[in-house]
Amino acid sequence: MAKAPLFIWILAYICWIAAANAEYKIYQDPKQPTSKRVKDLLSRMTLEEKIGQMTQIDRLVASADVLKKYNIGSVLSGGGSIPSPKASPETWVDMVNGFQKGSLSTRLKIPMLYGIDAVHGHNNVYKATIFPHNVGLGASRQRIGAATALEVRATGIPYAFAPCIAVCRDPRWGRCYESYSEDPKVVRAMTEIVSGLQGDIPANSRKGVPFLAGQKNVLASAKHFVGDGGTTKGMNENNTVASRHGLLSIHMPAYHDSIIKGVGTVMVSYSSWNGVKMHANRDLITGYLKNTLRFRGFVISDWEGIDRITSPPHANYTYSIIAGVGAGIDMIMVPYKYAEFIDGLTSLVKNKFIPMSRIDDAVTRILRVKFTMGLFEHPLADYSMIKHLGSQEHRELAREAVRKTLVLLKNGESADKPLLPLPKKASKILVAGTHADNIGNQCGGTTILTGIKKTVHPQTEVVFSENPDSGFVKSNKFSHAIVVVGEPPYSETFGDNTNLTLPDPGPSIITNVCASVKCVVVLITGRPVVIQPYLAQIDALVAAWLPGTEGQGVADVLFGDYGFTGKLSRTWFKTVDQLPMNVGDKHYDPLFPFGFGLTTKPVTAN
Ligand SMILES: *[C@@H]1O[C@H](CO)[C@@H](O)[C@H](O)[C@H]1NC(C)=O
Ligand SMILES: *[C@@H]1O[C@H](CO)[C@@H](O)[C@H](O)[C@H]1NC(C)=O
Ligand SMILES: *[C@@H]1O[C@H](CO)[C@@H](O)[C@H](O)[C@H]1NC(C)=O
User: Fold this and answer.
1) In this protein, which residues make up the domain named Glycoside hydrolase family 3 C-terminal (predicted)?
2) Which of 183, 228, 302, 437 is catalytic?
3) CA 203 to CA 497: how far, in whole Å?
4) For residue 265, what is the DSSP state?
5) Which of 8, 34, 93, 594 has the smallest count of CB within 10 Å of its CB?
6) First to last CA, the chain
């Protein structure tokens, strides 16, 4: 072999170094610290690429091409925005990966982040486990958070818009069921769900810095910042009138706890504080959340949240962008008219109405979260997590949560003559009511009637009549009756209600049944309702809240396989004109006070 002259070797070496350097990018190196990766990537980005990162669009208008063309940073499934009815988890994974491939084909290959509402389980997805709603105050929040995270990952999604840490101060609010309690202390304790969703934060973590344990966890979003549960008369998205001290002591503390637990994102509330829209509140978003609480994750708007800064919504989108981005919102849930948002923001930055430093702050935060959660290293999902969706283990956990969330409000005429637990063996029992055998009212899964049939002794005859007349009840010799009534399903503004009466035919079913047979009334409601007028007729009363898919948990406790242990996370009022009335108020005259709940012992031989 001929010997090459030395200079040839040197030349070859220089070329090799240059080639390697062209390949090596700090931001693509997982061994580099996150701060260096963010800085490196930000320095490579054009204004167009930065604004794309700040844009979140709904899956309905998303495609690989749109993601690529506009450098879109995030895609979401809005409520009910699903690939197809009863879509399989494989379909979900393929859809998310399809969008991701668009993002990975951009110049800088920045992966997009897919987000979805998963507030009591993975509730948009067919066959997912639905846990009791937050009002039911489960004792096992961290485990429920971890299970929800697995089910969300099963569909290829790494980001859940949960938990809702609203402190609902007035049950007339249609979203009161999304709130854990009227008491800020309880809501603070429930931020454990952040650790369930994102994983446990290591002890040496820096306060305020987003954290995500790994691929079995999901990015969380504490919402809705701030004061969403304090609006006048519980009107959805309305005005929270409170002093700064009132706001900070009731509605803010759970944000502090969530940030300590490493929550990666915070979603802004549609509501106003003392007349100022939260989506335009720079003092609270930038001043308090980012500067005082030192939150280092990103702030996301709610759906069309900046549009609603003006009244009517979208009346002046230029103003909305200035006010919303200027207030400190980092990612905008646009979600449809992305070109209008991108063009608007671009021109506002170019014309110096919004400083470049604000854009860089937003993109730094978004990239920090994406690096922290390992999205650059694991942008694509596979099918390996599908087995977790609606798994037996999660259903058992949900059933346990149902048992623990039931609150026993009345049990017989006196403590020495309890009606519950019911005997499993009886000749004939009546199950009645609009909510006994209706998975729509209950939110899917096993109905309460099915649970009762599975629990009683095989010789016990179970008669079901949704709305029996009093003659039918009298003429049959029932040992006892179980009446399951409550509110119809609702969400958001549709749930606002100023009378909180038990909807018809609930009251007449109670009267017809309880007049002639010993009866247990089980309420399926998202909040306390007017029950005082019927209380004397009712022998035993159970608040079951919104139990989700595992209705069997109700029968588990009614028939004594487990005891009642749940306590009220809300004050149960006598009449609506008492509202708002919360624990700690000067004038406090409830039907059942906050923290109330009778107990029973499990029965071994029943
Ligand atoms: C609150 O609701 C009232 C009545 O619908 C409405 O006129 C008002 O604009 C709302 N306030 C806010 C801040 O949304
Ligand atoms: C919209 O808002 C911008 C920014 O505040 C303002 O300059 C403009 O006059 C407004 N347009 C209308 C039609 O009110
Ligand atoms: C109570 O309010 C709800 C919601 O506004 C309404 O649909 C219902 O008819 C009202 N019920 C009564 C008895 O007024």
Assistant:
1) 406-599
2) 302
3) 44
4) E
5) 8
6) 93
